[in-house]
Design a protein that fits this description.
Distance between the termini: 35 Å
Order of helices and strands: HHEHEHEHEEEEHH
Oligomer: single chain
Number of strands: 7
Helix content: 40-55%
Shape: globular
Number of helices: 7
Length: 171
Protein backbone atom coordinates (compact mmCIF):
# COMPACT_ATOMS: atom_id res chain seq x y z
CA UNK A 1 0.00 0.00 0.00
CA UNK A 2 1.04 3.61 -0.24
CA UNK A 3 1.28 3.77 3.56
CA UNK A 4 3.89 1.01 3.41
CA UNK A 5 5.74 2.98 0.72
CA UNK A 6 5.76 6.08 2.91
CA UNK A 7 7.05 4.14 5.93
CA UNK A 8 9.77 2.54 3.80
CA UNK A 9 10.84 5.92 2.41
CA UNK A 10 10.97 7.34 5.95
CA UNK A 11 13.11 4.37 7.09
CA UNK A 12 15.40 4.91 4.11
CA UNK A 13 15.73 8.61 4.87
CA UNK A 14 16.64 7.86 8.49
CA UNK A 15 19.31 5.33 7.47
CA UNK A 16 21.18 7.46 4.90
CA UNK A 17 24.60 8.60 6.07
CA UNK A 18 25.10 12.16 4.80
CA UNK A 19 28.84 11.68 4.18
CA UNK A 20 28.13 8.63 1.99
CA UNK A 21 25.45 10.47 0.04
CA UNK A 22 27.81 13.42 -0.51
CA UNK A 23 30.60 11.11 -1.68
CA UNK A 24 28.28 9.31 -4.08
CA UNK A 25 27.08 12.60 -5.56
CA UNK A 26 30.65 13.89 -5.88
CA UNK A 27 31.85 10.72 -7.58
CA UNK A 28 28.91 10.61 -10.01
CA UNK A 29 29.33 14.32 -10.78
CA UNK A 30 33.07 14.15 -11.42
CA UNK A 31 33.49 10.73 -13.02
CA UNK A 32 34.68 10.45 -16.59
CA UNK A 33 32.13 7.67 -17.16
CA UNK A 34 29.20 6.47 -15.04
CA UNK A 35 28.09 2.87 -15.43
CA UNK A 36 24.75 1.80 -13.97
CA UNK A 37 23.93 -1.83 -13.26
CA UNK A 38 20.70 -3.36 -12.06
CA UNK A 39 19.41 -6.70 -13.23
CA UNK A 40 16.16 -8.63 -12.93
CA UNK A 41 13.60 -6.65 -10.92
CA UNK A 42 16.09 -3.79 -10.40
CA UNK A 43 16.62 -3.27 -14.14
CA UNK A 44 13.70 -0.83 -14.41
CA UNK A 45 15.07 1.28 -11.56
CA UNK A 46 18.55 1.23 -13.12
CA UNK A 47 17.08 2.26 -16.48
CA UNK A 48 15.24 5.18 -14.86
CA UNK A 49 18.40 6.36 -13.11
CA UNK A 50 20.68 6.01 -16.16
CA UNK A 51 18.27 7.59 -18.62
CA UNK A 52 17.61 10.56 -16.34
CA UNK A 53 21.31 10.95 -15.55
CA UNK A 54 21.94 11.17 -19.33
CA UNK A 55 19.92 14.39 -19.31
CA UNK A 56 22.24 15.80 -16.63
CA UNK A 57 25.70 14.67 -17.75
CA UNK A 58 27.49 12.85 -20.56
CA UNK A 59 29.05 9.39 -20.65
CA UNK A 60 26.39 7.41 -18.78
CA UNK A 61 26.07 3.73 -19.67
CA UNK A 62 23.33 1.33 -18.63
CA UNK A 63 24.66 -2.21 -18.35
CA UNK A 64 22.32 -4.98 -19.44
CA UNK A 65 22.95 -8.52 -18.24
CA UNK A 66 21.29 -10.03 -21.31
CA UNK A 67 23.92 -8.63 -23.66
CA UNK A 68 27.63 -9.43 -23.50
CA UNK A 69 28.61 -6.00 -24.90
CA UNK A 70 27.86 -4.59 -21.43
CA UNK A 71 30.89 -6.41 -20.06
CA UNK A 72 32.86 -5.11 -23.06
CA UNK A 73 31.85 -1.54 -22.16
CA UNK A 74 33.39 -2.05 -18.73
CA UNK A 75 36.70 -2.69 -20.49
CA UNK A 76 37.11 1.10 -20.70
CA UNK A 77 36.53 1.59 -16.96
CA UNK A 78 39.34 3.14 -14.93
CA UNK A 79 40.02 4.94 -11.68
CA UNK A 80 38.28 7.99 -13.18
CA UNK A 81 34.96 6.15 -13.45
CA UNK A 82 32.19 4.96 -11.17
CA UNK A 83 29.71 2.10 -11.27
CA UNK A 84 26.37 2.47 -9.51
CA UNK A 85 25.14 -1.04 -8.71
CA UNK A 86 21.54 -1.56 -7.62
CA UNK A 87 20.59 -4.90 -6.09
CA UNK A 88 18.30 -6.44 -3.50
CA UNK A 89 17.61 -10.03 -2.42
CA UNK A 90 18.17 -12.46 -3.96
CA UNK A 91 21.10 -10.33 -5.27
CA UNK A 92 21.40 -11.37 -8.92
CA UNK A 93 24.90 -12.62 -9.69
CA UNK A 94 25.15 -10.52 -12.87
CA UNK A 95 25.01 -7.26 -10.90
CA UNK A 96 27.75 -8.50 -8.57
CA UNK A 97 29.86 -9.50 -11.60
CA UNK A 98 29.43 -6.02 -13.11
CA UNK A 99 30.63 -4.45 -9.86
CA UNK A 100 33.58 -6.84 -9.60
CA UNK A 101 34.59 -6.11 -13.20
CA UNK A 102 34.48 -2.34 -12.65
CA UNK A 103 36.40 -2.55 -9.37
CA UNK A 104 39.06 -4.76 -10.95
CA UNK A 105 39.74 -1.92 -13.42
CA UNK A 106 40.08 0.65 -10.63
CA UNK A 107 36.63 2.23 -10.90
CA UNK A 108 34.80 3.28 -7.77
CA UNK A 109 31.72 1.36 -6.72
CA UNK A 110 28.51 2.76 -5.27
CA UNK A 111 25.98 0.24 -3.97
CA UNK A 112 22.27 0.91 -3.69
CA UNK A 113 21.12 -2.04 -1.63
CA UNK A 114 19.29 -3.09 1.50
CA UNK A 115 21.94 -4.23 3.97
CA UNK A 116 25.61 -3.89 4.91
CA UNK A 117 25.73 -7.67 4.47
CA UNK A 118 24.66 -7.57 0.81
CA UNK A 119 27.30 -8.77 -1.68
CA UNK A 120 27.36 -5.27 -3.19
CA UNK A 121 27.88 -3.47 0.13
CA UNK A 122 30.85 -5.63 1.10
CA UNK A 123 32.55 -4.73 -2.21
CA UNK A 124 31.56 -1.10 -2.82
CA UNK A 125 33.38 1.95 -1.43
CA UNK A 126 30.08 3.69 -0.70
CA UNK A 127 26.78 2.02 0.13
CA UNK A 128 23.40 3.66 0.44
CA UNK A 129 20.70 1.51 2.01
CA UNK A 130 17.03 1.49 1.17
CA UNK A 131 14.19 -0.38 2.79
CA UNK A 132 12.65 -2.13 -0.20
CA UNK A 133 10.27 -4.75 1.08
CA UNK A 134 9.12 -7.67 -1.00
CA UNK A 135 5.41 -7.39 -1.68
CA UNK A 136 4.22 -10.74 -3.00
CA UNK A 137 5.71 -10.96 -6.50
CA UNK A 138 6.69 -7.32 -6.79
CA UNK A 139 9.23 -5.22 -4.95
CA UNK A 140 8.38 -2.02 -3.13
CA UNK A 141 10.70 0.15 -5.22
CA UNK A 142 9.43 3.51 -3.93
CA UNK A 143 12.35 3.99 -1.48
CA UNK A 144 14.95 3.20 -4.15
CA UNK A 145 13.37 5.50 -6.72
CA UNK A 146 13.12 8.25 -4.09
CA UNK A 147 16.78 7.88 -3.15
CA UNK A 148 17.89 7.85 -6.78
CA UNK A 149 15.76 10.95 -7.45
CA UNK A 150 17.55 12.76 -4.62
CA UNK A 151 20.92 11.73 -6.07
CA UNK A 152 19.86 12.99 -9.51
CA UNK A 153 18.75 16.35 -8.07
CA UNK A 154 22.00 16.74 -6.14
CA UNK A 155 24.15 15.80 -9.14
CA UNK A 156 22.31 18.29 -11.35
CA UNK A 157 22.81 21.02 -8.75
CA UNK A 158 26.60 20.45 -8.75
CA UNK A 159 26.84 22.18 -12.12
CA UNK A 160 23.37 23.54 -12.74
CA UNK A 161 24.36 25.68 -15.75
CA UNK A 162 25.82 22.72 -17.62
CA UNK A 163 22.94 20.44 -16.63
CA UNK A 164 20.38 22.99 -17.77
CA UNK A 165 22.21 23.63 -21.05
CA UNK A 166 22.38 19.90 -21.69
CA UNK A 167 18.65 19.55 -21.02
CA UNK A 168 17.79 22.40 -23.40
CA UNK A 169 20.00 20.89 -26.11
CA UNK A 170 18.25 17.51 -25.81
CA UNK A 171 14.76 18.94 -26.10
Amino acid sequence: SMHTDIRSIEQTLASIQERDLKRAVEWISNARQVFVAGTHSEYGIACYFASTLCWIRENVFLLDATHNPSFDMLGTASENDVLVAISFPPYPAATVRFLDAALSRGARGIAITNSPLSPLAVRASVSLYTHDEKLFFADNSAPSVSLLSVILALVSSQDFKSSFARLRKKQ
